[in-house]
Design goal:
Layout (H helix, E strand, L loop, with lengths): L1 H12 L7 H23 L3 H16 L6 H25 L3 H17 L5 H18 L5 H25 L4 H28 L5 H24 L4 H11 L1
């Protein structure tokens, strides 16, 4: 079985996702949301409370950012704190047309303005904007807004604990593994060049293949390095369409 799967991995999986880095991220995000889903069912959350519980869980994994595990923990807590405050405010403001317009303008301006502070600030800002708009277009009173916040924090904290304590995944390890793979491929290329000098039977096609693998490994490392601070959604999009 291993002999059959290894060529498939080398040909189809390794070029796009060596070591299953992105696959592990996706699996962890899905499991975090599933745990929040079953926890909500277990305590009997229904209707709107169930929706906001899942919104908190999804927001925690979807807008995750930071180049290290420690920073990701901090940024995730900041995001949860901000949306916990903005969601009930947006729900109450949504009951008034002119206040809604003003709230959208101020929130949009603020979220896009903080993008100048860096990728992490931009990701948190867009997360706050999206979740707040969901609450804004579903207006409610202060009591219902508070219930939304409690439900959101419940799902978000379950997802947070799963992500960073039950199944932590340090982005620095991904960069290290990707760099190691790139160095190995460059080593194979240099070894092939040396063999060509000693043995003229080594074909140009073999050297071209090794050269292509080495170049792809270096590009892949640069991609993971650039994505290390971006959100999980941006990671999937760029790796799938631009790697």
């Amino acid at each position: 079985m291993h002999k059959l799967l290894n060529p498939f991995y080398l040909k189809y999986i390794r070029p796009a996702d060596p070591g299953f880095f992105i696959t592990k991220y996706a699996a962890k995000a899905a499991i975090s949301c599933l745990l929040a889903f079953f926890a909500a069912l277990l305590i009997g959350l229904k209707g709107e409370s169930f929706f906001w519980c899942m919104a908190g869980a999804v927001s925690t994994v979807l807008f995750r950012t930071g180049s290290t595990l420690k920073r990701r923990k901090i940024y995730a807590l900041i995001l949860l704190a901000l949306i916990a405050v903005l969601v009930p405010v947006a729900a109450m403001v949504g009951q008034h047309d002119y206040l809604s317009l003003g709230f959208i303008f101020i929130l949009s301006f603020t979220c896009f303005f903080v993008s100048s502070a860096g990728v992490s600030a931009s990701t948190i800002g867009h997360g706050c904007l999206l979740v707040s708009l969901l609450s804004l277009f579903s207006p409610a009173g202060p009591v219902q807004g508070l219930i939304r916040t409690i439900s959101l924090l419940f799902g978000g904290l379950i997802s947070y604990v799963t992500n960073f304590y039950i199944w932590p995944f340090d982005p620095e390890k991904i960069l290290f593994s990707s760099a190691k793979l790139a160095i190995e491929d460059m080593g194979f290329l240099l070894e092939g060049v040396c063999l060509r000098v000693k043995n003229p039977n080594v074909s140009e096609e073999q050297l071209a293949f090794l050269s292509k693998e080495a170049i792809n490994s270096v590009k892949r490392y640069r991609t993971f390095m650039n994505l290390s601070q971006k959100s999980i959604l941006q990671c999937y999009y760029q790796v799938l369409f631009f790697a």
